[in-house]
Amino acid sequence: MAVSETEPLVQPDRKQSTHSVNGERILGQLRALKASYGVVPNQSITGVTIRVFAENSVDTTLGRREQIYVEPEEKVGRIVEKYLDLLSVESNCPLVIKDKSGCILDQDMTVADAGIVEDDVLYLEQDAVTGERAIWAPWTGCWKPTSLVLIFGLCILGCALALYMKEPEQPFVYTVLLDAGSVHTSVFVYRYSRKVHDTAVIEQVLNCEIGNQVGISSFANHPELLIKYFNSTCFRSAVDMVYEEHDIAAPVVLAGTAGMRVLSITSPLETQWIMGNLTMALTKLANNQREVYVKIISGMSEGLAGWVTANYLGETLIKDPKEFNDMAVKGLTYGALDWGGASAQITMEVPISDANYDVTLYGANHHLFTVSHLCYGQKMAIYRHRAQLVYEAYLETGLLKRRLEEPCGPKESIKEHTFKDLFGTACTKFTDAEFMGKVNKSKGRIQFIGTGNVTQCHAHASIPFNYTLCTQRFIQYTEDSVCLNPSEIRPPPKRPFYAFSTYWYLIDALDLPTTHSMQEYKEKVHEMCITPRTRLLKAGIEEKVVDSACFKALFMLQLLIEGYHFNQHSYEQIQFVRDLNGAEVGWTLGHTIISSNSMPAVTPTEYISDMMFGVCMIGVFCCVLFSICVICTYQGMKSHKYNKQKSPFKPRMARVDYLNA
Fold it and tell me: Which helix (H) or strand (E) holds 24?
């Protein structure tokens, strides 16, 4: 067959409407050309050839399947080249060849090595990586920010949910309160986080002691030594207690009690020096990071606070049905008996007509009778007792004896006092001016020799409750009552009483149970009073109290019987306690509870408000919606890439020599 000279095989300058028509025309011309040279379909010009079918899945407009003749020694990549040459197009991106099983063939291998045989169908596709990149090309600039937006939105969602679902933390208010008594200083740390009817629900977190039989009133002559007294592990641990960041550190409060009240009567200037030095010392020890308040509380306030503590720990105050006990159900409260070093208090709830104090706690109003007596604490009582021994000897002989028998001291006991120490307090200021004149001029010491005479000691322990004799012998003060008038105190009602402070220490030393009979108490006291000093020490009585233990025990009994009108039946209503429900019974806890009535409520720490959570959710929704839209758009483009993407093929502009293809 001859080739026409008037009609060229390929007309590069003539544009066809479609690649498909152009491909069929070229293929027909190629077959005609090879037939004119005597080339049969199954045999090449140079040697044996095999026929394969190449099908493109990239651009269907060019045709789906074409015949390609290759030699077994040729590389697989030549199939791609011949296919493109056959269609007279070029590819903008790399193509891969897959066999009918979908495996990609290595284009550097020979046709024979690749296992290609006659009439195999091969598939030409875009390289996956390059193709995906091409498909995504218009969106490449948005992909990274879209991912960041999605991640950012999810992070906001997680954080917002975590903060919103987290239980709001209720901050605690911590307060440090120092009970500066006449014989020691106790340090307490209390905290609260919630209120019930405007009164705080408080718990004790620390309690320790400073000093050993030494109170702050002992520093009247050397107030500058107070900083050394308080510079202890006890106080530092209270002030330096680690709080959470959201907690509140309330001021440090030091309250002087009866010991300071006694000192303020006779030595007001020294009292001011002590209070001023206390403020500076505590502020310095607190590293100037806590406010410090120093004050002296009244006897009535001390008694009232002790009653609040006893009933708070006895669970009769909080009007919550879940926290009621039997006492609360019956509408009863405990009476409180507080006996310290320099004063004694009794407080009980009474009808409104007999009350001298009202207090509102946890939404309930309580009508109370409370009374405090200075000089009836265990330390001042023993001082007044020994001062009266000196005075009675003076009335008999007109002399100040330096050696006196002490019926309340155990045998073998010798106790010494200086005149200044024994008569320097407000509790031992006699009305007899002549006697006091001689006392003030006297120097040296007075010795008290113990005789262990229980009968005489009992008589001496009753003298302080003779109100007429007390007011005749001792100077009276307007600030505090230093003589107890039993007629002013009503008999105890039929309800339990808590007795604490020195009451408990004495009962514990006598090895008596919390509740016992008056007869048991009397027998224990009698046995102790007739026991020699050495045997008492061996029995476990501390040396610092062994010389005064008998008088204190008999004085306590007379205080309850003659002063407060307890009898052998009502005595058994008394429970002698030190701690209740994990906290010490005393005035400090009650003082903190009463003070909380005037303190603002503590609001929980809110991590994220409802409004802010809603804003976060809207932001998260927008981020997720944007990301979903972008991803869906991409997936749609990917699903329709063969129909919608720009073809990777373009027409070849140069003439192709098909005979050498």
Answer: helix 19-36
Report the Cα 88 to chain-centroid distance in Å: 81
Q: Which runs of E-coded beta strand occur in 542-586?
A: 574-576, 579-580, 583-584
User: What sections of 198-247 are H helices per DSSP?
Assistant: 226-230, 233-239
- What average pLDDT does the segment 239-253 reach? 75
Q: Of 291-295, 525-529, 646-650, give the range with the top mean pLDDT.
A: 525-529
pLDDT band at 163 (very low <50, low <70, confident <90, very high): low
Distance CA 368, CA 355 (A): 5
Q: Tokens representing 476?
A: 């009276």
60 has a pLDDT exceeding 80: no
* Bridging pattern class, strands 574-576 and 497-501: parallel
Of all helices (H) and strands (E), which one includes residue 344?
strand 343-349
Provide the 3-class DSSP secondary structure of residue 385.
helix
d(CA 206, CA 173): 14
| 3-state percent helix, strand, coil for the chain, nearest multiple of 5 | 45, 20, 35
Question: What number of CA atoms fall less than 13 Å from residue 19's CA on the CB side?
Answer: 18
CA distance 235 to 216: 14
Whether the CB-CB separation of 637 and 644 falls below 8 Å is answered with: yes
3-state class of 111 per DSSP? Answer: coil
**Any long-range contacts for 191-194 (C-beta under 8 Å, 24+ apart)?**
191/247, 192/596, 192/602, 193/602, 194/170, 194/601, 194/602
Q: Which residue has the tokens 């169908």?
A: 121
- pLDDT reported for residue 659: 37
Question: What gap in Å lies between CA 570 and CA 493, rounded to an integer?
Answer: 9
| 8 A C-beta contact, residue 227 and residue 284 | yes
Start-end of H helices in 217-368: 226-230, 233-239, 258-266, 268-285, 299-313, 326-329
Q: 373 and 481 in contact (C-beta within 8 Å)? A: yes
DSSP, collapsed to helix, strand or coil, labels residue 495 as: coil
Residue 251, token pair as written in the block: 């001021």
Give, as one character, the DSSP assignment of residue 646.
P
Q: Is residue 445 a contact partner of residue 402, using CB atoms and an 8 Å limit?
A: yes
pLDDT at 643 over 70: no
What's the rounded mean pLDDT across residues 300-321? 87
Tokens standing for residue 276: 């001023």
Paired sense of beta strands 497-501 and 335-339, if any: parallel
**Which residue shows structure tokens 């109003």?**
365
Please name which of 353, 448, 354 lies closest in space to residue 405, comparing C-alpha atoms: 448
Least confident of 108-117, 168-177, 355-364: 168-177
Cα–Cα distance for residue pair 335/492, rounded to 1 Å = 8
The CA distance from 532 to 640, in Å, is 111
3-class DSSP state of 321 = helix
Rounded to whole angstroms, how far apart are CA atoms 410 and 535?
10
CA pair distance 487, 490, nearest whole angstrom: 7
Q: Which two tokens stand for residue 44?
A: 């090449």
User: Cβ distance 93 to 127 under 8 Å?
Assistant: yes
Instruction: Tally the residues of the chain.
Output: 661
Q: At what angle do helices 128-136 and 140-165 cross, to 10 degrees?
A: 80
DSSP summary character for residue 60: G
A 10 A CB-CB count for 661 gives 13
What tokens were used for 39? Answer: 């080339």
Q: How far is CA 170 from CA 96, 201, 396, 493, in A?
A: 67, 13, 69, 41
**Quick check: 137 pLDDT over 70?**
no
Per-residue DSSP letter, 481: -
Q: Which helix (H) or strand (E) holds 50?
A: strand 50-56
